Amino acid sequence: LTLYDIPEHKDQQIRCLAHIINLVAQAMLSSLDEVEECTEDGSDTDHFLLNKNMPIHYDIEDNIEVKELEANRDVDVGFRDEFSEEKGLYEAALDEEEASDVGQSALKRLRFITNKITSSPQWRQRFWKFSSEIYGKTKQVDDTNPHSALLSKLMVIRDIRTHWNSTHAMIAQAVTLRKRDWERLEHLWKLLDLFTMHTQQLSMSRCPTIPFVLPIYDLLEKHLNAASVNFDLPMELRTSAGVGVLKLLKYKEDAVTNHNYILGTVLHPFMRTEWFHKV
Predict the structure, then answer these.
(1) Contact (CB, 8 A) for 154 and 70
(2) DSSP letters of 3-25?
């Protein structure tokens, strides 16, 4: 640009909306003391720079770890370890001590449990045993779909910080497996659901995404504003939604005046200028 005397303009920067969605979600979880706050783009707690070449959207169907653990269910069930009883009692005592340090956060406890199950044959053996006792051999995730997976054969999903949306996926799988409990987790799952949906939308490879940037900002702002005044939600989740709004507006302020986003929306055949009149 300097070589050809082209003046700099703020519209030259096209921000990655999927990255911004992730930063907003991090800010919300940080207000709940679930993750470290990412104060600035590129800080130590912002995993985008380290993983920007990886697929944007986390997809359970591509989770090799979960597929392998589910495929090895029979191996885990038949697992036998020398001195397993004594070792099991010793590990249970250590796990109880470690769990006491996790705190009362439902998400932290869930993360602790899923890490233990996915990393220990003894824990997986217990998990498969309890799962079979609770769900039997026939109960499915979706009773209306004959091809739906059996609940007793579903493995928990481990939350990996470098995989966007994996926190949401971990909660979703846990809620599926344990519908009677964890009301707060279910609220948080629904709060993050729109973030996952739009990250998936932005990960499409055969469709231009610039036309959807401004509508996504608008939908997320409305979603978080509604949550922040929804008194059916716990106070800490309403506060978290308010933190998310502030983080989102920080980036939306520049986006709404960006000519590239405006032109992209106007040129989209299903939005054009009518979308601006509606909002």
Answers:
(1) yes
(2) TTTPPP-GGG----HHHHHHHHH
Contact yes or no for 263/275 (Cβ under 8 A): no
Query: Mind listing the pLDDT tens digit for each residue in 10-63?
Result: 777 777 888 888 888 888 888 877 766 555 555 545 555 555 555 555 566 667
DSSP string, 48-102: HHHHTTS-SS--GGG-HHHHHHHHTHHHHHT---TTHHHHHHHHHHHHHHHHHTT
What is the tens place of the pLDDT at every residue in 56-72?
555 666 677 778 888 88
Provide the 8-state DSSP code for 140. Answer: B
Whole-angstrom Cα Rg for the chain: 22
Alpha-helix residue ranges (DSSP H) falling in the chain: 17-31, 48-51, 64-71, 73-77, 84-100, 106-119, 121-135, 166-177, 183-202, 213-228, 235-255, 259-267, 274-278
